[in-house]
Structure formats: C-alpha cells, structure tokens
Amino acid sequence: MTGLEKIINQIQEDARRDADAVIAQAKENADEILTQARADAQKLQEEILKKSEKDIANYRKRAQSSADLKKRTAILKAKQDTISHMLEKAYEKVCSEDTKTYFDRIERMIRAYAQPAAGVICFSQRDLDRMPKDFSDRIQAAAESVKGSLTLSEKGIRIDNGFVLSYGGIEENCTLRAVFDMKKDDLTDKVHEMLFM
C-alpha cells in the first residue's frame, strides 16, 4: 500500500467515524425530540380531556338549569290557567244568579260606586225588564247613603250585566266584567292562596 493509499484510507476512516458520530448524535437528537413530542402530546391530551370533562359538566349544568326553568314555567302557566279558569267560572256563576240574588248584588255595588252627587244609572234592557218593582227606591236609598242621588234611565244600554253610572257626562263602567277586571289582581291573589298555599 502506498503512502497515498494510506492517506486516502485514513481520510475515509476518519470520514466514516465522523459520519457514524453524526448519525449517532442525530439518532440521539431524534430520540430526544420523539420523547419530548410524546410528552407534549400526552400533556395536550390530558389538557383536552380535562377541558372536555369541564365542558361536559358545564353543559349538563346548563341543560339542568334550562330543564328546571322550563318546568317552573310550565307549572306557573298551569297555575295561571287554573286561576283564570276559576275566575271565569266565578264570573259566570255571578252572571247566572237568580234575579233576587243578582239585584241584591247590584244594590251592594251601587252603594260601593255611587258618588255624593246627582247622576244617572243605566242598565241593560234585559235588566230593566226583570228589575224588581221596588228597585228604583233601593237605588235611591243606596245613592242617598253617600249623600247623592241617581236617576234611573228608562232606556236600556248595550251591556251584558251590571250598570253604568254617569255623573256630569263622565261615565263609570260598573258592569260585572269591568268590576271583575278591575279586581283581577286581588281575586287572582285570593284564588292563588286558596289553591296553592
């Protein structure tokens, strides 16, 4: 072997050792990168799992709250429907009272709504036709109890029941429906107490 061949062999041997060292270092670096990547992936997977569990818990909580709200809303609506039904039944019962009971109620209403002034009281034609003979005297007595007077209009007006008071051109609707509507909040509270307390 000549000197040149020895030098070439030596260079090739050095190059192989250097290449082997570089390859070994590259493998070591690749293993470190792979190990780090696996650790990062594991950490990311754990974070995603924790976030998913938290999101699921929050979703369940919101779904439960929504279901509770719908349930409470349905119960409230059912209560309101029941109360409205009861009030309507009470109104219908009052409207269908016998003549004596009906006009006794009307007299009490006149005493409650009459003013200490001169006015006119108007009824439906139906009520005028079935009015007891002494009722105009009872109207006058009710008005006088508050230091007023009421003239009974002989012309029927278009109302279902109750009456309309007129003082100086200002009318007060005292039909049973108007009185029920005016006292609706109080009546609703009373029915609610009776049914749900």
From TrEMBL:
UniProt keyword list: Coiled coil, Ion transport, Transport
Coiled-coil segments: 27-54
GO molecular function: proton-transporting ATPase activity, rotational mechanism
CC terms in the record's Gene Ontology section: proton-transporting two-sector ATPase complex, catalytic domain
CDD domains linked to this entry: ATP-synt_Fo_b
Stored Gene3D superfamilies: F1F0 ATP synthase subunit B, membrane domain
Family as reported in the entry's similarity comment: Belongs to the V-ATPase E subunit family.
Protein name: V-type ATP synthase subunit E
Annotated organism of origin: Candidatus Eubacterium avistercoris
Lineage: Bacteria, Bacillati, Bacillota, Clostridia, Eubacteriales
